[in-house]
Amino acid sequence: MSRFAAVDLGASSGRVMVWDGRTLTEAHRFPNGPVRTPGGLRWDLRGLYREVLHGLRRAGPVTSIGVDSWAVDYGLLDSSGSLLGDPVHYRDERTGGIAERVASEIGAETLYDVAGLQVLPFNTVYQLLADDLGRAATMLLVPDLIAYLLTGEIGAEVTNASTTGLLDVRTRSWATGLIERLGLPARIFPPLRRPGDPIGPLLPEAAAEIGRTCRVTAVASHDTASAVAAVPAPGPRFAYVSCGTWSLAGVELPAPVLTEAGRAANFTNEAGIDGTVRYLRNVMGLWLLQESLRAWPGAGFGGLLEAAGHERPFAALVDPDAPVFLPPGDMPSRIAAECRRTGQEPPSSPPALVRCVLESLALGHRRAIRQAVALSGHDVEAVHLVGGGSRNALLCRLTADACGLPVVAGPAEATALGNVLVQARAAGEVAGLAEMRALAAGVEPLRRYEPSGDASAWDEAEARITTVGAGAHR
């Protein structure tokens, strides 16, 4: 098999990975995160691009390159194709109150019937309404923006476009009627492309930077779409949790679910590979731990996890999706304040706080998966937990206990794996989605966690967290 490179950009780190048909190898890994500027929180796009080029240089000769990233954020190009500024970070506070205004003016039901998207304050539609679009000729989501810098080609890959709130969930085309009603300029929405479509060869300057030329191929450019494409499930009866900075928990369906019950539960219908739908809900994820570790310089994460396993179960619980946890900052203090607000004793030590976060996150996984099954009628036999969180044995065990289902953990680099497998299929070296998932199952040893806890204890924990107001999903 040829060699394929995945540029996989996450909200806390980026990496360039290479697949040779058997092994997925890391060529380069680098940190990522928000930069606070006088104009608000931004992404350092130029710094990211430099790291991407460095990783591709280290990757060596490859047949093609694919780019995926987190969702919703974008850059704006002017009429000459120049970037108007670094992309605004989704945790910036500029969209405050806009979702409520749009729901009042357009109708929450109308928005959901068209786009099928969960309401999150940072959805692209709300960011665009908060932006100055006067000089903008084109909007490019982050992976499409990196592909543009590499090739000069403009386009929007459909799995990521489906997270904007401006894509018609039925036709997978831009929702021009909704765009017009919102007063957004139609000119900024680029042509759509699908996973596997060719984007183009590297620009001469990019090829010179990495020391060789190759082509760039569209992949499932929303990182969760790539991760779900690499879920190593032997059949359709599975739920998934793509767990990193965020946890995306749900099921894979052949068609969207646009019921009022789904809208009220804030479930989203996002485009997956081969016409599938990722019916899921966002859970705040390991962000709470990532920010807590920043407040504990020198703390060893492995030691904290081991100690957390011995802490008293359910001593304190929070809703990981509470809006107070969204911005960066002193997470331990906010968790303690939320515990006090809900009449609980705050965690007394870092291991106790880690236990609180992981049990709360497991309950978030449980709520999302159980609701996805109930709302879609899609029964599941196991939960596949992929991404960086699959390395966290305590989280996997707690998720199995909370859900009452086996958890299959791995692959940890599912997003990069889905990225390269789409490229391999586009090159004719992999036959289809079933073969992609079979290959994904053999990349690293998978770990299986059977439910071992007391199911009634988790029922009581969920009832308790809901009662104190810390667990009801906003």
Write up this protein:
- The protein has 474 residues and is of the alpha/beta class.
- The protein has two domains: 4-223, Nucleotidyltransferase, domain 5, CATH 3.30.420.40; 233-410 and 444-474, ATPase, nucleotide binding domain (Nucleotidyltransferase, domain 5, 2-Layer Sandwich).
- Helix content is 38%, strand content 18%.
- The chain is built from 18 helices and 19 strands.
- The strands form five sheets. The protein has a seven-stranded mixed sheet, with helices on both faces.
- A hairpin with a 5-residue loop joins β15 and β16 (277-283).
- The protein is globular, with a radius of gyration of 21 Å.
- The model is unreliable at 470-474 (pLDDT under 50).
Strand coverage percent: 15-25%
* Structural class by secondary-structure content: alpha/beta
Tertiary shape: globular
Q: Could you state the CATH homologous superfamily of the largest domain?
A: ATPase, nucleotide binding domain
Give the tally of structural domains. 2
> Share of helix among residues?
25-40%
* Adjacency order of strands in the biggest sheet: 15-16-14-13-17-18-19
CATH topology of the largest domain: Nucleotidyltransferase, domain 5
Mean pLDDT: 95
Distance, first to last CA: 47 Å
